[in-house]
């Protein structure tokens, strides 16, 4: 068996299908897509890629399947899905997901297309595997697909530990050995065995702390918003969305610097916008929280207009309402399968915490920050008595 | 400067006072007291001692003092207190604390006596330090003593990380670098700077997970109850409590085997009692939860009587009502110092979780477990409809 | 499958034989024997035991067997031997080996006796395994016994990594994943596959650095010599050697303090003798290097006599001539199985290095060090021009 | 003080000069230059960059200076040099060094130019530091410059540990805590204090093992040779060398794909040439070992001609004769400063080992490998009886 040395899981053995899939251009491209996109601008050691992450997910899924006693054809499809689950990502991963969806009108089914028309698809077929079935497992969140994408999936187990290893922030270091040992497959669902409410909670807590300290760090959010907007301009400027979607990070970085220099150069050199507004949920009117993409753009223009600055100097960043996927993981309590949220008081508390941490961001170059802050407060009707809670001193 | 190599903090530099204190018999005794007493019967790598833990607390307290810009005489006393904070412990640490207190009638002031009449006390004086002031800092929970014993103390920061390193359970691995960097000293209290609600919560969460998975593991609780009872018999059998209190683990282990063999040999060979009852709070009458030590012993005799087994075959283990010390740590929120429990929704949830995890334990040799379970249900009037929730199958 | 959490290898799964063996008194006793005996007096975190080490050796041997495709009865015997390989050790492991051998006249065959008359032996038989065959594998250094005790054995792989983890000295951290993947079993011998001269060398280098920095640290050697001498007096004083051999560390520590207090109390409180002489090979006459045990004792008396100090105040410590077992490990080079020493120039250099590091030690209480140094130089005829090379300033 | 979280050293505190230097375009560019260039094609987690490495070198140099008691202006210049030591690197670091030197005719003095004409230079001056003095310290290998570039420099200490962390190969994990504690500054040279021959050797051994297992892995060498040749063609094709030298990795990767696709696409997709020849020193005529760059190119054309393949299908890779810089590190032995090679037998052995590992490589696309191997054997007059030692089966 071929093996790859990994800094997180040590040697990862590849079955023959995986060994061939790794050599395809679709998979090799993942070498050039960072796992944490703009987080590296805050945590400079976080340069790990979707390539090694995908190997890690494959590794943990393989171990889980072997622990569950599942093998043969079924297991082979799940392992392939685990390995390939990220090949549909655009450059800079989640950061360009929305843009690609809006422009292509596709929702998630990219992986189907990709496996239907790619070297990876051919490799699957040459080993007697069905690309469509693999694609379903990636999309699915059903049956064994839950091991690839579900509340207790190998994706989450790998990225939490890997992101901790590379950022240096320890909170993602979950006990995946235990999670896998305690997995059961009951009536078509992955569940944790009796006595594992804490095991399930540990996953939730690790995510919550990594969200707060790493994934949603304001510097990463600012850079992310700049990258998104710059990408949008690139596409508006004529770059076909299909071509855009198949870029890797380095392609996008070069394209942005050359074709959208006002943002591209800043991203490359970490010369970032600053927070003009950073407002918690209680001072933001409900309609602002629900702004559509088009309305956000319109608001930016309005703010720029009032502040009398160039339109491209204002970025409005409205995150989605918070939710916690892991809260629906299944665990056996007193012999009955329950959703974690039904049995753990922590779930509710973490939901509140997520709400507490939600922030509306408005970003601008340092020298026009004050004007933009004032204009945004005006446009968004931010509660004036909360003024000291949302401006950044 | 002398330095000691530590597996957790790498090199720990010792100032001249510390270097001399380390050589005293009082401190060297800590080499023979395990940090986690009976937890090693569950996690066999957890053999670390109060000796290295005390060096770790000294190290983190020194770094915190230097970060806070506190030096001179004040800092010297705090560093000494950090180093010596555990020298008052009896054998097997917390496991024998209650027994020693009941028998000596002392509450915590042992450290005073110890520093007043010991080589360590002489060493302090020879360096111009005041043993009484050091003792106050250990006891204190006030002013800079909070660094030794408080909600944000170096003790907690060290043991969480160290216990994680040695058990292999990752959840204690907090970010002490960040905790120390964000410490401030305001109006006589240690607080965390603005923007650190999560930092404070991370300490709480680490403790909660380590409690559930490590510190209160049922096997460790059974062995702990056996050890406590055996120690009690040893003292009842004539061993002076002062002599008992100055034993180290190896002394106690030998003494128990020789003088209380029915329990001592079992502890040494990990031939433990089993759970006859393991009942959550909701099936246990309120008066049982509040049993005094004497009432617990009486209940054991009554259960043994009904079950018709030898009195020493029944151990009743009623843990205290749960509480979360870290919930009162101070953190600056919007410019105002707040208690964590006032600002974090997690605190309430963790309190509920602690309640959910509380268990009344009744332990007995494997061969009389059923009889003891039935008798205990009778004596304690355990809710019959909850029968399947408290017997262990 | 039962599993144990280990701080080095994470979860270790136990087969049914191993699970039963772990519960025997012979194996539980290993909880009370430290892996590195007196090294903990230098590296205070090094409190790990032969219990967890034995589990680790079992784990690595199991993985190697599975990698080599060896299963069934043969593998079962090797796994049992790996788990039990240390149960014959006396208290403080290697430190009391010589004493036990001299007194019992036995050489290595202890494990036979032990497995013939023990609960562990019964457990083996109850699972259809042959205790004598297991004992042979522990002693053997032949065939698959090489996995338990050989140049490329699981014992070495585990202890290097484990000692590094617990001392904090990184040099033992070898790549056991690679060592195991590259193992082959050819004509009754374990060999490393083509292209692995460096893999073999890495084992050698790790041992050499750990020898110099950890295993032979002078403070550990002094404490070891004190312990050995104290044990000798204990046995001379009437403790039956069979009883001595079955003690664990805590028993010995208590017995020494009570019955050989002049050394026992010092060991317990780390109040150690100091180096009076620390002489390299080139200043020590050849006959001194070859002193027998009886001659060493006679020399101590002579030195004490000349120095006019109590006889028990002089300890002479003559280590064996250095050798490097790993140098004979087998590796395939250009298709031919070779001994590492035939193909690696490092082996010769490391042999020289070991010679360079060899030291004759004479130890004494601090206050009589000078007198003892002078007398020892006289008795041993230490080269006078080398005077500044062997006294410790 | 500003601090950056690092996965290797945890928090790195930045003094005000460093904080400003980090924000310059010259330093930010290092985010886009991988530390190990093509090694990531073998060890996929090795994606760390010169940015975080430079922070690490700054950190270790700061600690060493503080340990040596050196501060003020002198220390400030050394710290700045440690931080900036890599800003002169071209894309893909060492891989393009030769090309840049040949084309610009410069040798090392790039850093002078850079600091003379850059934002980083201005920042230095604004803080009262002298850019020329900083440049000298980077180049120097003299005085305190030895801390930046010398046998015991912070550069080496950081990269060994960091490369181990990111590749997963443990052998680079040296004990930098000890190295720094044992540093002394004597008569203008960095030396290790008495008793540290092993400490010095450990550095040597770590490098030797990392060389064999990581840095000179054949897959990395093949990709490196492809990258070098492709870069050469890019420059021959008209890209000004000054522009080339200021590229970052992503720029080069895009440029190669677009302008030298026959190699660029292969590098990006890890579709690499294979070894046609891999010959040890003893089968390679001495004049081949000494081939100049121009002669190497001529040999490639000759081989291609004989093999009847396209000229670009042959890559000849002649590494320099091996040497070991660390062998000249200084260490105090018996009170006298000595070079390590004068006192350690390991140095000679490692030199031999390096010679043993030297390989002449000739690489070609898989489908013409045999023809190229035969032609190369002919052109280079490779010893025919060694045939089975240099072809790769």
Automatic annotation (TrEMBL), chains A, B, C, D:
A Pfam family in this protein?
Answer: HD_assoc_2
- Identify the residues that the record assigns to the HD domain, covering every copy: 50-160
Q: Which SUPFAM superfamilies match?
A: HD-domain/PDEase-like (SSF109604)
Origin superkingdom:
Archaea
* Protein name, UniProt field: HD domain-containing protein
